[in-house]
From TrEMBL:
This is Probable membrane transporter protein. The chain crosses the membrane at residues 77-98, 105-124, 144-172, 184-203, 209-227, 234-252. It is a multi-pass membrane protein. Signal peptide: none annotated. Keywords: Cell membrane, Membrane, Transmembrane, Transmembrane helix, Transport. Belongs to the 4-toluene sulfonate uptake permease (TSUP) (TC 2.A.102) family. It is found in: Cell membrane. Pfam families: TauE (PF01925).
Length: 253
């Protein structure tokens, strides 16, 4: 971010740190970084791809912090990671080949959809109830659903973690702590695909990535360590309100 003021630098640093923690605890941290990038002057497409790449280190921190919960999920991890990777490839290709005007038209709806999904997350968990760790996964539904979520993540990515935890809670039978860890790993897979594809072909703000990436890493690791006992409802609703405000703003401009 050439010529950035000290205030803008601090703004992005704080946004990255909080976003990394939010991704680990509640999901939806990218909804904080996306408007932050818009605020410092990036256009929606550049803000989207820069946001996607900047989130990658944060997901690494989440996976490292949750490595204990990922043990003994090998088969589920392999199958869902393949589905997420393929879906993310499709989403990235759609973003690159469709006209920029399509993204500008669709992104307000995607931001609002992601915010609504984040708001509904606790109610979905309450409706689902406590998952039975001994029951088999609904694999025939789980893998296509993860593929679609990956495609969404490749195209936009806002609140991907919220969508993934909703899908996993509905279709994979395990404790929510372990499913939350898998959500972080799948987010990392999708982010890795976007890092490779967008890094080669998209208008990435690399100076912004350099500011955001270390803070999302720290935030993701710290957030993963406290996710088991942290109350996230207030944080969740703050992110939801911000996401809805950004969506409405983009819709009206």
């Amino acid at each position: 971010m050439v010529g950035a003021s000290p205030g803008q630098l601090v703004f992005l640093l704080v946004a990255g740190l909080v976003a990394g923690a939010v991704n680990a605890v509640a999901g939806g941290g990218s909804l904080l970084v996306f408007p932050a990038l818009l605020a410092v002057g990036l256009n929606p497409l550049a803000a989207n791809v820069t946001n996607s790449i900047a989130q990658w280190p944060g997901y690494v921190g989440i996976v490292v912090g949750n490595r204990r919960e990922l043990r003994e999920q090998r088969r589920r991890i392999v199958l869902t990671c393949i589905a997420a990777a393929l879906g993310s490839v499709v989403g990235c290709i759609l973003l690159l080949v469709l006209p920029g005007a399509v993204f500008d038209a669709v992104v307000p709806a995607l931001v609002i959809l992601a915010s609504v999904m984040m708001a509904l997350g606790p109610y979905l968990k309450r409706w689902i109830g406590s998952p039975d760790p001994d029951a088999p996964d609904r694999t025939a539904w789980l893998l296509p659903a993860v593929f679609v979520a990956g495609a969404y993540g490749g195209y936009f990515g806002g609140a991907l973690g919220v969508i993934l935890i909703s899908v996993l809670s509905l279709l994979a039978n395990d404790t929510l702590v372990r499913l939350n860890a898998l959500k972080g790993l799948l987010s990392l897979v999708a982010a890795t695909v976007t890092l490779v594809i967008f890094g080669l072909r998209a208008p990435v703000g690399w100076s912004d990535v350099a500011i955001l990436a270390p803070t999302t890493l720290v935030g993701g690791y710290v957030g993963a360590r406290v996710a088991r006992r942290m109350r996230d409802d207030i944080l969740r609703w703050c992110v939801v309100a911000l996401g809805l405000a950004v969506g409405v703003y983009l819709l009206l401009t």
